[in-house]
Design a protein that fits this description.
heterodimer, A: 539 residues, alpha+beta, seven-stranded mixed β-sheet, disordered N terminus, B: 298 residues, mainly alpha, 0% strand
Chain lengths: 539, 298
């Protein structure tokens, strides 16, 4: 059968597109009002009416125009503060207003941004950062080493630590050592400290920064901001990159749910939307006006087994559970095929993640492992799930079905998100969690050390800690990667994570929006790098 | 015969007996056009719900939990749901539990409510007041809020669902029962029984109950309609049936993100629940009219 959905309405779509207003005029009423028509619009546009196909723009980027971006999430607590982004719209704003010293590009490679270079000494205790000359803040003042010092002081303020503070516990002080050079002096070796400097929540701000008057070095400046509704940014003419940004204006609109956001795109109320449900990519993409940006990522949605409690304290049980999963089917059913197969280790883009054979479903072996562990007739487990991320509850259901073949009888306990992240979070014997793309060592700090903030599996392995500490202190990359590979093998064999796959990130945009490229970071819409975006001719 | 499919069946044989002892009620009811329409509508949905599970996987090729393709694809007659399961199979398998739970909850609410109501009406004034005022307190709690609270505390188990919905019905049934009983206990034949020192429970059971079946039947139909709505609503909210069980309320929740592009996963259960509630409502209405006529004739 074709992929077009059943036709419910014989008439062509209402001309909702005609109601277009300037960027300052996105009224809630206009959005809601057209929202009524959009529901049908969605059905109609996809059901056989043939709007003229707009070819994707080619050639050199054109300057000018306004990009209207729809994102779901956010609310009254939305912020413009450079260092406490929480939800998707916060992150989108922060990425476009501020810049960190380094950043992760679309291939998840660390690239210089406000820094020209960041190099460790041979013990990885001191990192020397050379600042990019000639960069100015939105208010015209140049970026000085003093601003860098003040920024990190603000982030690690013991009275009011910001989001990035946990990644900076190794940081002792930032010292100015030259006209354009600063030193990050650490209290314990960290050969991957540059990863922390590349987080989007580490944007450099002036020493007298005030979040109420947000000033950064990003490609866009704040024009207006209403929390929970929309933010309008204008072009930063003094931006340091040649030609960029191409847009005159950028508007970021909040949506309460995916439906409203998708409808707004289909009726051209917005030009691009971030993160659509993977199951809907094909149907939305079948609209000839709409393009889908499908990005492979290193995000993961694991099942977590507590290695210190029965039955998962027996490594054979953990291995049996890992062997019970049909990973291809998980990707097909949970992610509609839009994902990459997982191998029970995270950080797929880390250069140290190599040399492990792909684990596949092996029911006979799973059964014999369970029998050896004392469960010849299989066992009953409760899997706690909640809609913590799209696909979580779905993954639990598919796992329950697959595991039955190996004699694992899964009882699903579905809770709401508040209960899930309540007092029992990190205490469940068998549950789920969700992480964005990270490299191996930063992720280990998050969830696999005894005092990590999110150690759901209660993993506390002396050999593993040794390997991790060695790797952190090893500046030589090849050597470090070998240590990481060994630590990964330990997790692969004995760890409490079942990592069945890495979901793709799917975004949708009108074809006249150019410059968006797939991005491995897991952040929507090219990692929100709207400086590269330009509007094609036939807007 | 289509009358076999009316909700009266589900409340158990006790009520069947009451009905047969009130001759003419059913005939009066079925003589009305809307009762026949109601019976047909209810019958269709009941048939789907009862026979549906038996047809799987023979009719569609899939069980209600097996995967037939990727999510939200137009495979098969009605496409696939959010996990790539066949929507028609889920639909056929999803009605029985809803109806069973609704029927059990209604029966429980009716039994408890009738006992409380009759006891209140046929006891000393202070006891009557005590019962009915505590009743009022329960009535002040919105039914759905009470159910949500109980299920959050006790967990979404079948018996919790049935008990909670049954208990929230009871005060409403009790009110109706009490007022109906109050008008009967002043009758001479009750006085006569009292003079012969017949035990109170026997008077209530043999003399009073047969004479209040009319209003009770109406109440039964009404409560059944509400129960269906409640069970479906709680499942929709994620507090009723747990995945991966096939259930109409749950189906609506699971598939609503694709409402605009792959609507059948929502439309089928919504239409079924709508037809069922309209059908039971029509039946109840006609029953009310029939019993009003019946009482007037006496």
């Amino acid at each position: 059968m074709t992929s077009s959905p059943p036709s419910l309405f014989p008439m062509p779509p209402p001309a909702a597109r005609a109601r277009r207003s300037g960027p300052e005029g996105f009224s809630r009423r206009a959005l809601l009002g057209s929202g009524m028509a959009l529901g049908l619009g969605a059905v109609l546009t996809a059901c056989g009416a043939q709007p003229s196909v707009i070819a994707a723009p080619t050639g050199n980027p054109q300057t000018g125009g306004t990009l209207r971006v729809g994102l779901s999430g956010g609310g009254a607590s939305d912020t413009l503060d450079a260092h406490i982004p929480v939800n998707t719209t916060d992150i989108a704003r922060v990425v476009n207003l501020y810049e960190a010293l380094l950043y992760r590009d679309e291939n998840y490679d660390l690239q210089p941004l406000l820094a020209l270079s960041a190099t460790p000494d041979e013990k990885a205790m001191v990192w020397t950062v050379k600042l990019r000359p000639g960069v100015v803040f939105h208010d015209g003042r140049p970026v000085r080493p003093e601003d860098v010092v003040a920024t990190f002081k603000r982030i690690t303020d013991p009275e009011d630590p910001k989001s990035g503070a946990t990644a900076l516990v190794v940081l002792d002080e930032v010292a100015i050592v030259g006209k354009d050079t600063v030193e990050f002096r650490l209290n314990s070796p960290s050969a991957t400290f540059d990863d922390s400097l590349g987080q989007y929540s580490m944007g450099i701000v002036p020493a007298d920064y005030d979040a109420a008057k947000p000033v950064g070095t990003g490609p866009f400046k704040v024009k207006s901001f209403s929390p929970g509704r929309q933010s309008v940014f204008s072009r930063n003419d003094g931006y340091w990159r040649d030609h960029e940004p191409y847009l005159d204006e950028l508007a970021i609109l909040n949506f309460d749910d995916d439906d409203a956001m998708i409808n707004a795109l289909l009726s051209s109320q917005v030009d691009a939307i971030g993160q659509i449900p993977l199951a809907l990519t094909e149907v939305i993409g079948s609209d000839p006006r709409i393009g889908i940006l499908n990005s492979e990522t290193g995000m993961w949605l694991p099942f977590t087994m507590r290695v210190d409690r029965k039955p998962f304290d027996d490594v054979r049980v953990r291995q049996a559970f890992k062997l019970a999963v049909d990973r291809e089917q998980m990707i097909e059913q949970v992610l509609s095929g839009h994902g990459t197969i997982g191998n029970d280790v995270f950080a797929p883009f880390d250069p140290g993640t190599t040399g492990l054979t792909q684990r596949t479903q092996d029911i006979a072996k799973a059964k014999s492992l369970l029998a050896e562990a004392g469960y010849p007739n299989g066992l009953d487990v409760e899997l706690v799930t909640a809609p913590i991320q799209s696909g979580a509850v779905e993954a639990a259901q598919v796992f329950a079905q697959q595991a039955a073949a190996s004699g694992i009888r899964v009882k699903i306990r579905r809770t709401d998100t508040t209960t899930y992240f309540g007092d029992d979070y990190l205490q469940w014997d068998f549950a789920q969690d969700f992480y964005y793309t990270r490299n191996f060592l930063p992720q280990v700090d998050n969830s696999l050390l005894k005092d990590s903030p999110y150690n759901e599996t209660h993993w506390d392995n002396a050999d593993f800690v040794d390997l991790v500490n060695q790797a952190k202190a090893t500046v030589d990359e090849d050597q470090r990667n070998q240590q990481i590979a060994k630590a990964q093998r330990l997790l692969y064999d004995e760890g409490g994570y079942i990592i069945w796959g890495h979901p793709n990130q799917a975004d949708a945009f009108q074809h006249y929006v150019a410059g968006l490229v797939p991005n491995k970071t897991g952040l929507a819409l090219s990692g929100y790098e709207f400086r590269r975006v330009w509007m094609g001719g036939t807007k | 015969m289509s009358t076999n499919n009316t909700p009266t069946d589900m409340a158990g044989s006790a009520i069947d007996d009451e009905v047969s002892s009130a001759p003419g009620l059913f005939r009066r009811m079925m003589r009305q056009k809307q009762a026949r329409i109601g019976a047909v509508l209810t019958g269709i949905v009941l048939l789907v719900a009862l026979v549906g599970p038996l047809l799987l996987p023979w009719a569609t090729g899939f069980t209600s939990t097996s995967f037939s393709g990727r999510p939200f694809q137009p495979d098969g007659i009605f496409g696939t749901d959010n996990l790539g399961r066949d929507i028609l199979s889920r639909f056929l398998d999803g009605g029985l539990r809803l109806l069973a739970y609704a029927a059990l909850a209604t029966a429980l609410g009716m039994v408890v409510g009738v006992v409380i109501g009759m006891a209140a009406a046929y006891s000393r004034p202070w006891l009557d007041n005590l019962i009915m005022r505590s009743n009022d307190v329960l009535l002040a709690l919105p039914q759905l809020v009470f159910a949500l609270l109980a299920i959050t505390v006790l967990g979404p188990k079948g018996w919790v669902l049935v008990t909670v919905i049954g208990i929230t019905h009871a005060p409403r049934v009790a009110r109706v029962t009490r007022s109906a009983t109050a008008s009967v206990i002043t009758e001479d034949f009750v006085r006569a029984s009292e003079m012969y020192a017949v035990p109170k429970w026997k008077i209530l059971l043999k003399d009073v109950l047969p004479n209040i079946t009319g209003p009770l039947m109406v109440e039964l139909g009404l409560r059944m309609t509400y129960s269906i709505g409640f069970v479906a609503a709680l499942s929709f909210l994620g507090l009723g049936m747990q995945p991966p069980t096939a259930d109409w309320g749950l189906m609506i929740n699971e598939n609503r993100i694709a409402l605009t592009v792959q609507p059948w996963g929502v439309i089928l259960p919504v239409v079924a629940i709508a037809i069922l509630t309209v059908g039971t409502n029509l039946l109840t209405d006609s029953l009310a009219r029939a019993s009003a006529n019946l009482n007037a004739g006496e």
